[in-house]
Amino acid sequence: MDIRVTENPFELGRAAGTAAAQIIRDSIGAHGSASIILATGISQFETLNQLVSEKNIEWDKVVMFHLDEYIGLPVTHPASFRKYLQERFLSIVPALKSAFLINGETDAKAECDRLGDLITKYPVDVALVGIGENGHLAFNDPPADFDTDQPYIVVQLDEACKRQQLGEGWFKSIDEVPPYAISMSIQQILRSKYIICSAPDARKAAAVKNTLEGPVSNLHPASILQLHPNCICFLDKASARLLSANIIT
Predict the structure, then answer these.
(1) CB count in 10 Å sphere of residue 206
(2) Of residues 103, 123, 99, the one with CA closest to residue 113
(3) How much helix, strand and coil, in percent to the nearest 5, is found in the chain?
(4) In sequence order, what are the residues at sequence separation of 6 or more whose Cβ sits closer than 8 angstroms to the Cβ of residue 53?
(5) Rounded to an integer, what is the distance from CA 182 to the centroid of its chain?
(6) Full-model pTM
(7) Three-state secondary structure call for residue 229
(8) CA 180 to chain centre
């Protein structure tokens, strides 16, 4: 794993967004198209800001999927990830070739099947992901299912995950956080040719240490990224503060 530490979240986002943009350009140059996975949440603010500002990307040759969405949450809710991507990405860049958003307001099993069928047709060139305070990858909370081959699955959110969503200001109370979500599975994320992980902020420091220095374990789901051959992890000084010096390149 390539670990890169920046001074602050703004520099992290610029570096991660620039790296993602180059992978997209290279994929279009090599194959005529690019398939991407986008994450949401506070950790992705600066990365997406940089990505949408990048020049010379033929967005009409890009297919987009995203990682997860709450079940039963209206798209008008401030915490809706569909809303997030519409406002922070899709409404800013030129029209994509296709954008496949997760609809959490329909039958969850059918939606998993629909998206699973679609993503198998578009091998993913780059996935943009984050690390949760509880170490989750997408909404695969611990203990995560490392084995399922299903591209999208229904998951139950744990208490730590719900508290993170509350702490980030997406909900007014923990009781408002939906208990279930549709999430891209661990194995589907790992099928991406490249993975760019953005993990800023001191509140992620313990999860980052477990992810990068601990054993690969479904109790620290993001630790599975250690096994990916082309993963770049972008940190800032705050999120990297617990790491051993010799792990940082």
Answers:
(1) 16
(2) 103
(3) 40, 20, 40
(4) 17
(5) 13
(6) 0.95
(7) coil
(8) 17
The conformation of residue 141, written as its DSSP 8-state character, comes to: P
Distance CA 11, CA 106 (A): 38
Encoded tokens for 25: 């350009």
Q: Which two tokens stand for residue 248?
A: 């940082």
Q: Of the candidates 94, 38, 92, 87, which has an alpha carbon nearest to the alpha carbon of residue 65?
A: 38
- CA distance linking residue 193 with residue 161, whole number of Å: 27
Helical packing angle, 9-31 and 45-53, nearest 10°: 50
* DSSP notation for 81-109: HHHHHIIIIITTSPPPSEEE---TTS-HH
Tell me the average pLDDT of the chain. Answer: 96
Tokens of residue 118, six digits: 């679609």
Residue type for position 208: V
The CATH class for the domain spanning 2-247 reads alpha beta
Q: Of 153, 154, 170, which Cα lies nearest the Cα of 162?
A: 170
Q: What's the pLDDT tens digit per position in 56-108?
A: 999 999 999 999 999 999 999 999 999 999 999 999 999 999 999 999 999 99
According to DSSP, the residues that pair with 64 across neighbouring strands are 36, 99
pLDDT (average), residues 204-215: 96
| Alpha-carbon span 123 to 109, nearest angstrom | 22
User: Which residue type, as a one-letter code, is found at position 100?
Assistant: F
Distance between CA atoms of residues 13 and 174, nearest Å: 29
